[in-house]
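Hey, I'm writing a tutorial for new members on how sequence and structure tokens pair up, and I'd like a real worked example in the thread rather than a made-up one. If someone can provide the structure for the chain below, I'll link this post from the tutorial.
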Amino acid sequence: MELPDLTSADLRDLLDREAARINSPAFIADDPVQFPRRFSSVPDIEIAGLLSATIAWGNRRMICNNCNRLLSLMDNCPYDYLMDEGYEDLPPEQNIHRTFFGRNFRHMMRGLRRIYARHGSLDAFSAACGAPAAETPAWHLAAALNAQLSEANGGVSDSRCLPLNLGNSALKRLNMALRWFVRDDGIVDLGIWKSLRPSQLYIPLDVHAGNTARALGLLKRRANDRRAVMDLTDAVRPMRPGDPAFYDFALFGIGIESRLKA
């Protein structure tokens, strides 16, 4: 991707413009954020959102098709399905999305059921595990979630549900789910959580966002890892200290749709 040299003011204008263009109701229909938005209760939104984010890698159309299929499998009642343990009847080899199978889904649902039985919501669990006070809330929360999933599955961990190498992982999918749950501008994201603030979010970093950020001079690190997420978010934070993840929309708009306006 070739982008012109930009002054700091031009860069901010570009990022603000692209973010505002993408952060609109029209974005929802083709994005996995549509799935948690189908529901009104916090548990249903959280479960649908976390599962949709968990399988959000690869082709967007395939992701959305498989998210829709997954919700249908749960009779479009995620919380009831979870608490009734309907997932235990799912064949372990049933394909959910690419390399995510029934056994991985069951592993994740067992852990989530444990959390909901004890805390009532992921938001409450986030508060209880100390994520709001952590230096990096998303990674702290991921470690706590992994611990719950492991305990609910006899001490076994599963990297298909959440990354286990948290010292290095960009944690893209959980950061995306947190953007949905925490950002509260009332447009695309749902803003249902109280435990975390938008200022505590990080940019969900994938290959496309990383390449765009490097082309814009926002990121120098070559690897799309945890350090790169920190560096990128720190680079955009001064532009919008209370809501740095807003610029996730800009990186999507420039990188995926390749629309650069003068």
